[in-house]
Amino acid sequence: MTDTLPPCPECASSYTYQVDALLICPECAHEWGVADGQEAQVRDSVGNVLCDGDTVTVIKDLKLKGTSSVIKVGTKVRGIRLVDGDHDIDCKVPGVGPIGLKSQFVKKVSG
Q1: How far is CA 103 from the centre of its chain?
Q2: What pLDDT does 27 receive?
Q3: Rg over CA atoms, the chain
Q4: I need a surface site. Which of 43, 45, 68, 83 has the fewest CB within 10 A?
């Protein structure tokens, strides 16, 4: 996945990195909040920007913790909702129900 963080507003370095809600420039040590530069974007496994209401497909089998159920690769999930946290997608998976998914395990359906 390509890094799409904005360049440093002080020195224009492209080597910025993110730690929680802060963006940091290793060259000039400038720190700024994500909201100061741009709002954090949630991206799928191939780098597409996700939005509320998008449809995604699961790219690998996902075992549900505490059960013997599995969400199979290729499962289409409609009407996602983006949230803060480790599991950054809230959705209803057909046959499973409401669940939180990580964006790294889904791919946006085009169209």
Answers
A1: 4
A2: 92
A3: 17
A4: 68
Please tell me whether residue 61 adopts helix, strand or coil conformation. coil
- Tokens 């998008």 sit on residue: 54
What is the number of domains present in the chain? 2
Q: Which of 111, 78, 110, 73 is nearest to 94 (CA)?
A: 78
Cβ atoms of 11 and 27 within 8 Å: the answer is yes
23 belongs to a structural domain: yes
Q: Assess if residue 47 is contained within a domain.
A: no
For residue range 22-48, what is the model confidence (pLDDT) as tens digits?
888 999 988 877 654 455 678 888 888
- pLDDT given for residue 49 in this prediction: 86
If you ran DSSP here, which 8-state letter would residue 103 be given? G
For 16, the domain range is: 1-36
